[in-house]
Amino acid sequence: MKVLALSLLGASLVFGGGTAAQAQQRCTFLQPIGGDGTTPIVSKRVGAAKLIGKENWNTDFIVNQPYSSFKFFFTANSSDANAKYPVSGFMKFSDGSNLQVINEVMNPPMGTGRMFGPFPAIPGKQASQMNFKVGASSDPGALGFSYRISVQGCQ
């Protein structure tokens, strides 16, 4: 996959600060790919690798129209106070490139979490999906914890 230059990431973070105009934006939850269409909120549990096949810690949300910015939401559901969640988020584009906008390890108390963004749309790029990845095979301490995620597109 092609990856945009880090300068674009820096620009998205600089321009991603909250402004009064962004506070008045209309935001819509994006539907998860493969969901049943009843809820835009995905609940998952970070689990150990499968014996056959591959564990899927990625969740993609479809971008069905142009938006000016995107917000990612993460909520911890684990009662384990030591739960650590490696969280990554990507904007995926129609040309096959992507831009990582989140890369953190979180330890929020149960029922709490964080909103990431808003991340502005990248000029000249058409967003096709937003991707959330929680957990990593290289971090066995992150296994066994549940969480909820969602993404919004804003105008």
Structural write-up:
It is globular and about 45 Å long. The strands form two sheets. Strands 1, 2, 4, 7 and 9 form a five-stranded antiparallel sheet that branches. Strands 3-8-5-6 form a four-stranded antiparallel sheet. Helix content is 9%, strand content 41%. The protein starts with 5 loop residues before the first helix and ends with a strand. With 155 residues, it is mainly β. The chain has two helices and nine strands. Strand 5 and strand 6 (98-106) form a beta hairpin. It has helices at residues 6-15, 20-23; strands at residues 27-29, 42-45, 58-62, 69-76, 85-93, 98-106, 113-120, 127-134, 146-154.
Brief overview:
This protein is 9% helix and 41% strand. By secondary structure, it is mainly β.
Distance between the termini: 28 Å
Continuous helix count: 2
Output the structural class: mainly beta
From the alpha-carbon coordinates, what is the Rg to the nearest angstrom? 16 Å
> Helix content range of the residues, please?
under 10%
Q: Average pLDDT value?
A: 78
Specify the overall morphology: globular
Report low-confidence residues grouped into runs of 5 or more.
Answer: 1-18
Largest sheet: 5 strands, antiparallel
Order of helices and strands: HHEEEEEEEEE
Summary tags:
mainly beta, 2 helices, five-stranded antiparallel β-sheet, about 160 residues, globular, disordered N terminus
What is this structure's SSE topology?
Layout: H1 6-15, H2 20-23, E1 27-29, E2 42-45, E3 58-62, E4 69-76, E5 85-93, E6 98-106, E7 113-120, E8 127-134, E9 146-154
Antiparallel strand pairs: 1-9, 2-9, 3-8, 4-7, 4-9, 5-6, 5-8
